[in-house]
Amino acid sequence: MKITIEMPKPGEEDEIIVRCASLDDKLMNLIYSLKSDQDKLTGYIEDRIVKLSPKDIYYFESVDNKVFAYTAKGTYEVHKKLYEIEEEYTHTDYLRISKSIIVNVAKIAYIKPIFNGRFEAQLKNEEKIIISRQYVLDLKKKLGI
Amino acid sequence: MKVLSNAIKWFLYITTGILVVATINYIIIGDETIPANTLSNILLSGALTTVVTVIFVPSQETKATWVYVKMLLHYVALCAVMAFCGTKFGWIDFNVKGVIMMSVDVALVYLLAFFAYSIIDRRQADAINKRLKEKYSDRD
Predict the structure, then answer these.
(1) ipTM at complex level
(2) Domain boundaries, chain A
(3) Which residues, listed in sequence order, are joined to residue A108 by a DSSP beta bridge?
(4) Mutation for B interface: A93, A99, A110, most B CBs within 10 A
C-alpha cells in the first residue's frame, strides 16, 4: 500500500483521504482507530469533568450499574452503558473480556491461564483483571490469531 | 453454537479419558476378553457425562468460590452418573467398593481432562502473548 503525506495549504484543515478499491477490515480498523482517538470521552470525578482520550484508558468496568474508566491518572465515572461503549469501540483495540469489563487490548502486558478455567490479564500498569473463558476466542480474533 | 462446540470438545476429552482409564483397568485387573459392547458403552457414558459437564461447568464468569463449589458438585454428579452406568454395563458391582472404585476412575478422567485443558490454555496464552508483543510493543 502506498502512503502519501501532503502538507495542507495555509488555512486549510488537516484531512485524511482513504483511496482504496475496497474497505477491508484492516482499513476499517485504522479509520475507526483514528476517529475514536479524536472522540474524547467525558469522565466524571467528584465535582470535576475530565476529557479522556480512549487510548489512555486501560479498561472500563461496570460496578453497581455505574461504568468506570481506569487510566494511569485515576478512575473516572463514565455516563455510558457498557454495551454502548462496546458498540462504539467495536473496531478499535477495545474488547469485552467478561460480563463487567471491556479492556484496551493494547494495555495488556500478558495473559496467563488460572486454575478455574479462566485467564488472568496483567495490564501494563501492573493491575490484574480476569478474562472469562468464553471471551478468549474473541481476543484471539481481535489479535488476528 | 458456542455451547455445542464446547460440548463436542468436552465429549472428546471425556471419552478419551474414559477410554484411557478403561484400558488401564483392563491391563491391571482384566482377566477376560473385552465384551464387544464396551466401546458403545464408553461412548454412551461419555455422552451422559458430557451433559452433566455442560450443566455444571460455568460458561459465564462467577466468583472463584462458586467455581470451586460447582467443581465439587460436578465431580459428585459425575460419580453418580458413572456409578449408574458402571452398574448397568456390568463394569462394577453396586456396593461401597464398586462406587469407590468408580469414584477413583472418575477422578483420573477428571485429572486427564484438566491436564489436557491446561496444556491447551498454556498454548493459547503463549500465542496471545506473542501476538500482543508483536502488535503493541511499540506503544509501551
Answers:
(1) 0.76
(2) 25-102
(3) A123
(4) A110
Q: What's the CATH architecture for A25-102?
A: Beta Barrel (2.40)
C-beta separation of A98 from A80 below 8 A: no
Mutation target vs A (from B59, B136, B138, B140; most A CBs, 10 A cutoff): B136
B64 backbone φψ class: left, alpha, beta (φ>0; ψ -120 to 50): alpha
How many CB atoms are closer than 10 A to CB B43? 14
pLDDT in tens, A96-111: 999 899 999 999 999 9
Q: Which helix (H) or strand (E) holds A78?
A: strand A75-78
Torsion of CA A133, A137, A138, A143, to 10 degrees: 120
Segments of A93-142 assigned E as strands: 94-96, 101-104, 108-114, 118-123, 128-131
Give residue-wise pLDDT tens across range B1-35.
677 888 898 899 889 988 988 888 888 877 677 78
